[in-house]
Amino acid sequence: MREDGEQDDRLGARRVRMLDVANALGLSRATVSLVMRNSPLVSEATRSAVLVEAERLGYIYNQAAANLRTQRNDLVGLVMPDVMNPFVAEVSLGVQEVLGEVGLFVMIANTVDRVDLQRQILRSLVGHRAAGVVTIPALTSTADHFADIRRSGLPTVLLLRHIDGVELPFVGTDEAAIGRLGAEHLITVHGCRRVAYFGGDPLASPRVGRMETFRRAVTEAAADWDATWSEPLEATPDAAYRRAAELLAAGPPPDGVLCHSDNVAYGLAKALRLGTPDAAPCAVLGIDDLHQSAMWNPSISSVATDPVELGRVCGRVLLAEMGMPVEGSCTPPAPEIHARASCGCH
Amino acid sequence: MREDGEQDDRLGARRVRMLDVANALGLSRATVSLVMRNSPLVSEATRSAVLVEAERLGYIYNQAAANLRTQRNDLVGLVMPDVMNPFVAEVSLGVQEVLGEVGLFVMIANTVDRVDLQRQILRSLVGHRAAGVVTIPALTSTADHFADIRRSGLPTVLLLRHIDGVELPFVGTDEAAIGRLGAEHLITVHGCRRVAYFGGDPLASPRVGRMETFRRAVTEAAADWDATWSEPLEATPDAAYRRAAELLAAGPPPDGVLCHSDNVAYGLAKALRLGTPDAAPCAVLGIDDLHQSAMWNPSISSVATDPVELGRVCGRVLLAEMGMPVEGSCTPPAPEIHARASCGCH
DNA sequence: CGTGGGTGCACCAATAGCTTC
DNA sequence: TGAAGCTATTGGTGCACCCAC
Q1: Are A252 and A299 in the same domain?
Q2: In whole angstroms, what is the distance from residue B15 CA to residue B7 CA?
Q3: Which residue of B has its CA nearest to A130?
Q4: What is the pTM of this model?
Q5: Cβ of A64 and B73 within 8 Å?
Q6: Domain residues for B158?
Q7: What is the mean pLDDT of residues A158-166?
Q8: Nearest residue on chain A to B154, judged by CA atoms?
Q9: Is B328 domain-assigned?
Q10: Which is higher by pLDDT, B157 or B46?
Q11: Could you tell me if A46 lies within 8 Å of chain B, comparing CB atoms?
């Protein structure tokens, strides 16, 4: 029987285990375990003795081993296609707020919108027996990219992008309301006569739903629809700027544009600013109302979707999925117009 | 001996283990293990039989158990004070790029700049035996907030904010060069006569180093130093805007301002824009050159620190710390001026 | 004869190193 | 020699049980 209790402080010394702490005090592993978990089943004297000795030996609790035994884990993965998009950051705030309250631990993984990476990350999360996942699926995701995770039973919430054939809980914005509000504001309030829906990826995206009601409302109001400006487009400011600059060079823009997101509106705003100085005014409306949109120049008017609250809702839906008690709404907030300068309101 | 090989597909069916797959085929666990790890030690026939059966049974590899045995893990934590800051997103891109190449798996945790949360997250990462950590310490961090992680031996890289008494590898920007370049550009190129360093938290922050050389250069050039505008300030656009609006209401601004970061410059730019229309021009220079700064109006001139490359450097330093081979530079890139409109260059 | 305080051991799901055919 | 098996090991947890007041 080797004496394991005595550890030295040399670099590379063998890692201290719970057993070492127990041996050093002549106790059993079970007792030390109870202390580490703050169980009331152990006397105050023993508890403090254990804590002191653990500290002295430099013992570090191995959560991974505990998780293996209990089949539980407190890590929730946020699997997101683009961490550069501020929308993602705002959502993460909400998720963290709700899940942090019940002791869950949120971390963000970046798929860079690549399905292979997304698959690898999801597999890894399943393999690590994470507590849950909230994800905005990569654009080209199909049902079988989620086969693994569905079969694993890992509680999962899909955000924003719905995928055909995947029956996982879904949290999304009210696309119909967004389209309607956008059309209303541009046409009724600003009297636009030729409008477009600018940007947004063609696939697995809220674009379809938003554009549908938007376009219907436009038709009903007898305004013109600009199909060229309404072609799909990657939802980044860069892509939006390039496309808008191109279209502006070819001719005058519509007089009202609903952008797929504020992120897209930023690019359009830049293109309009650098375009011909005395061009006819173009009312620009974003979607989301990201935090920084008020800071922009011109300040961006937007159909607010409240991304932080959207994150909270995801958190709550995930809790429900995990069979935990939930307080607060599990329904995304209703979108509303936040009018600023870019549409001409201020 | 219970037959474990036959699993049904009911919800809640017992989780399939490696042993179940082995039993179903009359093989040993070890063989299945080799297959799952793509070992060449197993025949092609056996390998495919195992894969097919694993798929059929819905077996999911338990990475956590494997990690326990091998004492290894592929998760690297990015522990960041504010995921709303685009700087963090850019850094994460670089870290992920470098670490992803060697099969490491990066996730971002948000401390919201709270030391208690930071401590909890670091403990959790240590407890989960993560492969490594890259962190921008929370503002009020002290050496003993890092005692746990230091003792644990978990490879850790500190980014940007140095902490007294913590001898962990540190990656930071060249503050002296930043201060010097900033002063040079404002004073020599634009002829500013009264300048300030705007924003940045007072503690554990690059502010001190940057301001020192900046101020010295200003003095040497016999320009005036505006102490009021140079008071410390939380590094968010909101805080910057509020402070700047306040100061502008009280009197004219300096004619040249070096902002602690682009994030701060955004707020100042808004305040200047909303200020008196015929005020004397104020040259604004940010620091970092975030991706979106080119999109801003006015486009933000900046002392570029290349956050993505900074992230790559962190990744490489971490690899070195983990004893892995490293290719590429472990030194942060030299800062350089990216001149745009906000300082008056375009 | 409870009961507070603590022990012993099977178990979680894999891997490593050695043996065997 | 190539393929597979055996068994100890990883660091904890849950539970049945035990002992002494």
Answers
A1: yes
A2: 9
A3: B64
A4: 0.93
A5: yes
A6: 71-173+309-321
A7: 93
A8: A60
A9: no
A10: B157
A11: no
